[in-house]
């Protein structure tokens, strides 16, 4: 575990010791955070599936290229791979 996380957990532990009624509120906040992260991952998965379908369909089709660019731009920088090179290439082709 990293130090920042350990400090945050120690602070939460100390806070709940002083205000036990805050415990359920912290659990609710954690649950909301997990739900939000899961929702974002599901949205990302759906968007990338659309981008892949557009790529497989036809890159030369304006609609397919637009979908592909839109979805990759939306998630670029938040994926395990960088797509800058591909986005630049697609934009140059479109120009």
- The percentage helix is over 70%
**How many β-strand stretches?**
0
**Topology pattern, helix = H, strand = E:** HHHH
As a whole number of angstroms, the C-alpha radius of gyration is: 21 Å
Give the structural class. Answer: mainly alpha
What is the straight-line distance between the termini? 47 Å
| Overall pLDDT metric | 87
Low-pLDDT sequence parts = none
Shape: elongated
Query: How many domains?
Result: 1
Q: What does the largest sheet look like?
A: none
Account of the protein in words:
The protein contains four helices and no strands. It has one domain (3-94). The chain has helices at 3-18, 23-57, 62-75, 84-94. The radius of gyration is 21 Å and the shape is elongated. The chain is an all-alpha fold.
Q: Would you spell out the secondary-structure blueprint of this structure?
A:
Layout: H1 3-18, H2 23-57, H3 62-75, H4 84-94
Summarize the structure.
By secondary structure, this protein is mainly α.
Give the tags.
single chain, 95 residues, 4 helices, 0% strand, elongated
